[in-house]
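Annex B. Sample input.
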Amino acid sequence: MSSYDALIDGIKANNFVIIGRAGMDFFTAAGEATEDAPEMRTGLGGSSANIGAGICKLGGKAALVTRVSDDSIGRYCVGQLKHYGVDATHVTPIGGEYRNSLAVYESRLEGHQSVIYRNGAADFQMDKADVAAVEYSAYGALITAGTVFAAEPSRSATFHAFDLAKQAGIPIIFDVDYRPYSWPNAQVAEEVLSRAAAECDMIVGNDEEFGFMAGDITKGLAKAKALSETTTALVIYKMGEKGAITFANGKEIRTGIYPVQALKPTGAGDSFMAGLVTSLADGHDLKTSILRGSACASVTVSRPGCAPAMADTATLETFLADHPGPTHV
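Annex B, continued. Sample output.
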């Protein structure tokens, strides 16, 4: 069996163990600036938690491995995970001065502000014991987003999880999700993210992220293609409004996006991942699955919030039925 076939077989189990943060989001009503908002809504946030929620809303199964603060905010995150059906067995509270990630953002594009609070992040305290407690063979694939590598002990713990996943024979899916504010400096980020990418079976990133790993934005596409020809069975190179280029099985697939009236830019990547993997699990071919992931991203950016805005199966199918179709690239 090829590495690509093994990857797809793992995804088809539609049962994912996801490593990374859960956070709390504050967001405004449509069109409001933060400073003018008389009140704000709350929702589940954090890339990995969002991916898990999106998978569950689309009929898959997901379990999250992370640390949360031992306080009301941490309990809120656990409660939200359970609300969406994400298994929180391996979400462990930590006391002291460690705090959950908090994002405050606006439901508007013009003048959009997103403020992230990450001081003393609880999720960075996830350690090797946390990931060793997981029975990886119970899942079809492991998913993680790049922020887990930004600090210790989370970095070493996640690489240990990679080793355990490989021993269990399940593929590793990596959303690069580079957030400069989480890293000590760009050089460390480039080295660590490149190491992580080389260990994965599937990588999803945007043009800037691949360019960052290549050391030059103009070399990002070549980096993505090189990974697909050496270590990685499936590589998706996202280009925003220009769609995506996917490398798999020696082939190149170009796909567009589903244009919508966007309300904010946040949550698109997380919903894309959830839509992509659940569509593959449901038996759609690769190109169709990429487009369904793109449709999920469009649904999410057109509504307030991240996890609350993600499509469930009925919403996705209605959107696809009513939309005139993706752009051609």
